[in-house]
Structure formats: C-alpha cells, structure tokens
Amino acid sequence: MQSDVFRLLGEPRFGGILVVADHASNRVPEDVELGVAAELLDEHIAVDIGVGGVAERMVRPGIAAYLANVSRLVCDFNRECDALGVLPAVSDGHEIPGNLLCDEARAERIARYFEPYHAGLAALLDGTPQSLIVSLHSFTPQLASDPDQQRPWQVGVLYNEDDRAARLAIPLLQAEGLTVGDQQPYSGKLLNATMNRHAEADGRPYLGVEIRQDQIADADGQAVWAERLSRIANEVALRLS
Predict the structure, then answer these.
(1) Taken in order 209, 210, 215, 218, is the CA torsion positive or negative?
(2) Is the distance from CB of 22 to CB of 72 less than 8 angstroms?
(3) For 169-183, how does the pLDDT look when each residue is reduced to its tens digit (9 = 90+)?
(4) Strand-strand pairing, 63-68 and 6-9
(5) Strand-strand pairing, 90-91 and 94-95
(6) According to a count of CB atoms within 10 Å of the terminal CB, is the N or C end of the chain lower?
(7) Burial classification of residue 66, based on how many CB atoms lie within 10 Å of its CB (0-12 exposed, 13-18 middle, 19 or more buried)
(8) Half-sphere exposure of 112 (CA within 13 A, CB side)
(9) Are 91 and 23 in contact, with CB atoms under 8 Å apart?
C-alpha cells in the first residue's frame, strides 16, 4: 500500500511487530519547492540514510513496516504538530528557504502531509494491535555544524517514560559486540514525538532504535542490521508478552 504520504510494506498482523520510519524517504513532490541544492537531498538533513533499506529487509511474516514517503524537509513527522521543526527552516547549518511559509501555506503543508501520516498510523495500530513497535532512525558519526562532537556508538536506544523494551534490547545489542548508546546520541525524553503520540500515550510497547549511518550505508550493511533487528525485536516482543 502506498500513498503520497506513507508506504505500508508487508501485512500487519495482530500481535505482530511494526517498524515505523518517520524519515525513510528523500522524495520531494514536484509541486513542493524547497530551494535547496539537489545533492543535499541525499544527505542526512533530508533522509535517515540507510533506514529505508533496513526497514524493507525486515519485512517478513509477522513484521510489517510503515514508512514516510516524503523527505523530512518537506515535513518532519517526528515532531509535535505545532513545533517549528515540522517544516525546518534550517537543518545542520543549511537554510531551507522553501519552508519560510506564511501561516496559511504552513497549515496547508501540515494538512497535506503531517495529519494523514499520523492518522494512517493511528488507524493501523487501532485496527491491528501490535506486540511491539520499532521506531527506526539513523544518525551521523558527527554533525557538519559540530564536527568535533564524535559519536562512537554503533547504535543507540531511545525512550521517554516507557523503557520496558529498551531495558531488554540494550543487553541483547551489546551481546552482538556492539557499542550501544543508552539515550545516545540524544535523549528520547527530548525527541520522541511519534512514539509519544502512538505508543506511550496508549501504553503500547516500543523500541526506539538509532543506527549510525556508516553501519547501513550499503545493501550489505542494511541486510546485516535487518536480520539483527528482526531477531532482537522478536526476542523483545516475546519477553514482553
């Protein structure tokens, strides 16, 4: 299933696992003019590099994926609706002039993308309850705007108030020989909007995963992480049941 806003891969099953990737696409609709260089659409400011490939490879019986189908520069779904960052004017030092909109145009963009994305996810979770939601993102080894801030973690686990799945997943990831960040490279208490809305608000277990982009920059790395996360997510879901 595909719309202008999201893609649904696989068949969601009652008690299954749903992968949610808010930043899985760098697509910019033809009638949206961001005013940025085309090459920036392949950078992390426009898309979580590698995440789409990991999510697609995770899909199998019992695991489906709900993926954003527009760039985070068009609309950042992992923000509160009234946050300025929903339509970012600046990202990692790059200005996005096409997002300097009047109130009416801003409201139209949000109504076109943000609202149907979250309505679709809410309807899916209400209609087919899941045993676990995996919120999947990726992060840069360092920011262009702060290159001295190194990020040594290969993967980070994020959460807000509900850390049930996180506490199970962190040692499982560490057992893979990985350097795992607990609330790194940033805290889920600060940036967890989609999971706050669709998981924590209703008591649904979720696992927030941030993979360092160099781990999943190519198909081989994406396959490795898809297998790993599918296996660990299943184990977490079983232990939570």
Answers:
(1) positive
(2) yes
(3) 999 999 999 999 999
(4) antiparallel
(5) antiparallel
(6) C
(7) buried
(8) 15
(9) no
Structural domain containing residue 95: 6-240
Q: Could you give the CA distance from residue 97 to residue 32 in angstroms, rounded to a whole number? A: 12
Is residue 26 within 8 A of residue 71, CB to CB? The reply is yes
Count CB atoms within 10 A of the CB of residue 219: 11
List C-alpha distances in Å: 11 to 107, 198, 211. 32, 19, 25
CATH number, domain of 127, equals 3.40.630.40
29 cis-preceded (ω within 30 degrees of 0): no
Number of domains into which the chain is organized = 1
Is residue 203 in a domain?
Answer: yes
Q: Report the distance separating Cα 198 and Cα 208, nearest Å.
A: 13
**What is the C-alpha separation between 52 and 121, in angstroms, rounded?**
17
What distances in angstroms separate CA 93 from CA 47, 96, 146, one per listed residue? Answer: 16, 10, 10
**In a domain? residue 1:** no
pLDDT tens-digit readout, 97-147 = 999 999 999 999 999 999 999 999 999 999 999 999 999 999 998 665 566
Which residues are paired to 206 by β-bridges?
Answer: 133
SS3 182: strand
pTM score of the predicted model: 0.95
Q: How far apart are CA 150 and CA 187, in angstroms?
A: 16
- Contact, 212 vs 54, CB < 8 A? no
Q: What are phi and psi of 207, to 5 degrees?
A: -130, 115
Q: How far apart are CA 171 and CA 176, in angstroms?
A: 9
